[in-house]
């Protein structure tokens, strides 16, 4: 559970801190720097929370059923419903548009891996159980590199 102090900040202080955080994030230029920032700034629980929230947004956008999302991400129906309501209210339009733009523009490994991961998680290519069940991902990546 993420802990939030019960003592609220003054709105002006919170606004200033938020501006500084956004400015700092905007100055991060590389994947390595982004990764380091996230690892230093967020706990493992917070990272999982953000990752699941993003995955739920994408899966809902891709018209996946609640049961599919619940089974793959191990989240509750309530969590999915909250994110769906926000998605319908346009709360995540920027995030969805950025993901669509990056997958159209980029041919790099990051977007390729993300697309493959998404296909797998959406059940389009769930591998059989066993020792080398994810080996096909490495094979796809090797073909892409050549």
* Biggest beta-sheet profile: none
The number of helical elements comes to 8
Count of distinct strands: 0
Alpha-beta classification: mainly alpha
Based on Cα principal axes, name the global outline: globular
Uncertain regions spanning at least 5 consecutive residues: 107-112
Proportion in β-strands: under 5%
What oligomeric state do the depicted chains represent? Answer: single chain
Number of domains: 2
Overall mean pLDDT score?
79
Protein topology:
Layout: H1 11-27, H2 31-41, H3 44-61, H4 66-73, H5 77-88, H6 93-105, H7 109-121, H8 135-145
Describe this structure in words.
The chain is mainly α and 146 residues long. It folds into two domains: 35-105; 107-146. Helix content is 71%, strand content 0%. The protein contains eight helices and no strands. The protein has helices at residues 11-27, 31-41, 44-61, 66-73, 77-88, 93-105, 109-121, 135-145. Helix 3 crosses helix 5. The longest helix has 18 residues, at 44-61. It is globular, with a radius of gyration of 18 Å. Residues 107-112 have low confidence and may be disordered.
């Amino acid at each position: 559970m993420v802990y939030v102090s019960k003592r609220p900040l003054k709105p002006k202080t919170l606004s200033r801190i938020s501006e500084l955080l956004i400015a700092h994030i905007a100055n991060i230029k590389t994947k390595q720097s982004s990764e380091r920032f996230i690892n230093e700034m967020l706990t493992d629980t917070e990272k999982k929370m953000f990752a699941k929230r993003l995955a739920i947004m994408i899966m809902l956008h891709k018209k996946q059923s609640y049961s599919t999302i619940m089974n793959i991400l191990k989240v509750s129906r309530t969590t999915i419903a909250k994110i769906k309501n926000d998605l319908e209210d346009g709360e995540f339009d920027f995030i969805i548009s950025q993901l669509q733009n990056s997958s159209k523009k980029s041919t790099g490994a990051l977007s390729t891996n993300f697309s493959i991961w998404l296909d797998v998680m959406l059940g389009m290519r769930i591998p059989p159980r066993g020792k080398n069940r994810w080996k096909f991902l490495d094979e796809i990546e090797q073909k892409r590199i050549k």
